[in-house]
UniProtKB/TrEMBL annotation:
Key word Cytoplasm present: yes
Major site of localization recorded for this protein: cytoplasm
Function: Catalyzes the attachment of proline to tRNA(Pro) in a two-step reaction: proline is first activated by ATP to form Pro-AMP and then transferred to the acceptor end of tRNA(Pro). As ProRS can inadvertently accommodate and process non-cognate amino acids such as alanine and cysteine, to avoid such errors it has two additional distinct editing activities against alanine. One activity is designated as 'pretransfer' editing and involves the tRNA(Pro)-independent hydrolysis of activated Ala-AMP.
Protein name per Swiss-Prot or TrEMBL: Proline--tRNA ligase
Organism: Metabacillus malikii
HAMAP family in alphabetical order: Pro_tRNA_synth_type1
Highest taxon of the lineage: Bacteria
Entry domain remark: Consists of three domains: the N-terminal catalytic domain, the editing domain and the C-terminal anticodon-binding domain.
Family: Belongs to the class-II aminoacyl-tRNA synthetase family. ProS type 1 subfamily.
Length: 569
């Protein structure tokens, strides 16, 4: 492609509203432009990269035995009502009505649509297992779109769904998809980890997220420093054991603690370690109120609370709900003398606290000398806190460290969550009706594009891995008015194209400094500069990844470029 004939509007300055490197570089290098908050146009260079990512995805999905289809983005509300998600999915689901008042949603995901398709066509175990996928635009009304295309309201996604007659078949299909995802992200040149995760609004169990390691990631990964264990922080179990303090029980004493609401404040005010304080937080778990206790130096993991109850929605109680149920404001809540209809659960670490401190359910007061066996009724102890750096790894090998990650893929074992709700059944070998067992597998295609740039850049611009670069070679004649340079550049351009290379020829009438700056921004793997030695048949070759530059006779050029591109994969 000749650069004068395509659309690459580069920028010299970093846009003020671009917070992260991928957003900055995609704007500056002319890959994207914003239409409105969280919605972008993908310009020719970005479109080429997206198509290469999609091709890698298609190849690996085909190897895993999945067939491609294409489903509508506009989905009728009735399907979401069948699954029960029309009311539970939340405000991220974009809802609308047609001229007849019928309700629809713009597809945030396609479990309902694919389940309805398969239930109407597949009736026998002989047609199972079946795996289907699509690559399509999705819509989610994000509260705060940010980081360019990393968190937008319109994005490109690959979603796949598998249907099985047995759990063993699902396990096999899940492993195939897991392996396919590892291949996809490796071929895209990403440094990533597959981590144990929560299924969230998707439902189901047994799920892994594929996280690209990045300091700007919104998710925290807990990983072992000596093994392959990795999990999203919200899903990592705590296996630490706690020794109960030995000593005489103190008398329970109510003391005045004016304006001392936080653990830090009460710890300093009473000169007591945070580990001796009991943090009490009122949660609304679906339609019930639950008081959750953790040690003062720990944080409640609401996902663990949700999973303990098998709940759909878990939220911290509002200020009004706290006053109504425990008759005081947050900061002074405690487990002593709580209403009998409020269940009290505590993290395992709380069990070891003796002579501790907790709120007195009265503003401005706390209890000290608290011993829960004596002073309160705890309904259940469980692992309810977030894991911390330095904790034992859940697999028993090493200790936990944290890293930030960008989620680019997610695989789920949905089980019968949707098939039972929507009547997707089949006749088994004995003629009995059974619900189909499902899996779900998603990749953020446009997010993967941004994640690649987050990991592959330098101070001058993008540094594309060869496998997904928009072009492989950038040819730059220093002076297009010089016939020798212009003719050699065009000759090399045609030769490389005929040999199957993807080439961008900068034929613009621009200063060479502008061309070089744009070339670094765009970040193609190999740059060939045709300059003063054109008449001698000598050009300069520069490798974008290493910065290595050298002169070379054009007769040796193709073999050298093949070697460079082969080494850069």
């Amino acid at each position: 492609m000749k650069q004068s004939m395509t659309f690459i509007p580069t920028l010299r300055e970093v846009p003020a509203d671009a917070e992260v490197k991928s957003h900055q570089l995609m704007l500056r290098a002319g890959f994207i432009r914003q239409n409105t908050s969280g919605v972008y146009s993908y310009l020719p260079l970005a479109h080429k990269v997206l198509k290469k990512i999609e091709q890698i995805v298609r190849e690996e999905m085909d190897k895993a035995g999945a067939s491609e289809l294409f489903m509508p983005a506009l989905q009728q509300a009735e399907l979401w009502q069948e699954s029960g998600r029309w009311y539970s999915y939340g405000p991220e689901l974009m809802r609308l009505k047609d001229r007849h008042g019928r309700e629809f949603a713009l597809g945030a995901t396609h479990e309902e649509v694919i389940t309805s398709l398969v239930r109407d066509e597949v009736k026998s175990y002989k047609r199972l297992p079946l795996s289907l996928y699509q690559i399509q635009t999705k819509f989610r009304d994000e509260k705060r779109p940010r980081f360019g295309i990393l968190r937008g309201r319109e994005f490109i996604m690959k979603d796949a769904y598998s249907f099985h007659a047995t759990s063993e078949s699902l396990d096999e299909g899940y492993q195939k998809m897991f392996n396919a995802y590892q291949n996809i992200f490796s071929r895209c040149g990403l440094d990533f980890r597959a981590v144990i995760a929560d299924s969230g609004a998707m439902g189901g169990k047994d799920t892994h997220e594929f996280m690209v390691l990045s300091d700007i990631g919104e998710d925290t990964i807990a990983y072992s420093d000596t093994s392959q264990y990795a999990a999203n922080i919200e899903m990592a179990p705590v296996i630490d054991s706690y020794e109960e303090s030995i000593g005489e029980m103190e008398q329970l004493e109510k003391i005045e603690t004016p304006n001392q609401k936080t653990i830090e404040e009460i710890s300093a005010y009473l000169t007591v370690e945070r580990e001796k304080c009991i943090k009490s937080i009122l949660f609304k778990v679906d339609d019930r109120f639950v008081l959750v206790l953790v040690r003062g130096d720990h944080e409640v993991n609401d996902i663990k609370v949700k999973n303990l109850y098998g709940a759909t929605v878990v939220d911290i109680a509002t200020a009004e709900e706290v006053i109504e149920n425990v008759k005081c404001v947050a900061g002074f809540i405690g487990p002593i003398n709580v209403k009998s209809d409020i269940e009290i659960i505590a993290d395992n670490a709380v069990k070891s606290i003796s002579n501790g401190v907790c709120g007195a359910n009265e503003e401005g007061f706390h209890y000290k000398g608290v011993n829960l066996k004596r002073d309160a009724k705890i309904d259940k102890y469980a692992d309810l806190r977030f894991i911390q750096e330095g904790d034992k790894s859940p697999d028993g090998e090493g200790t936990i460290k944290f890293a930030k990650g960008i989620e680019v893929g997610h695989v789920f074992k949905l089980g019968t969550r949707y098939s039972e709700a929507m009547g997707a059944t089949f006749l088994d070998e004995n003629g009995r009706t059974q619900p189909m067992i499902m899996g779900c597998y998603g990749i953020g295609v446009s997010r993967t594009l941004a994640a690649i740039i987050e990991q592959h850049n330098d101070e001058n611009g993008i540094v594309w891995p060869t496998t997904i670069a928009p072009y492989q070679i950038h040819i730059i004649p220093v002076n297009v008015k010089n016939d020798s340079q212009k003719n050699l550049a065009e000759s090399l351009y045609n030769q490389f194209i005929q040999s199957g290379f993807e080439v961008l020829l900068d034929d613009r009438q621009e200063r060479v400094g502008v061309k070089f700056a744009d070339a670094d921004l765009i970040g193609l793997p190999v740059r060939i500069t045709v300059g003063k030695k054109a008449e001698e048949g000598i050009v300069e070759v520069k490798v974008r990844k290493t910065g290595e530059a050298f002169e070379l006779a054009v007769t040796e050029l193709q073999s050298k470029v093949k070697q460079i591109l082969g080494n850069e994969k």
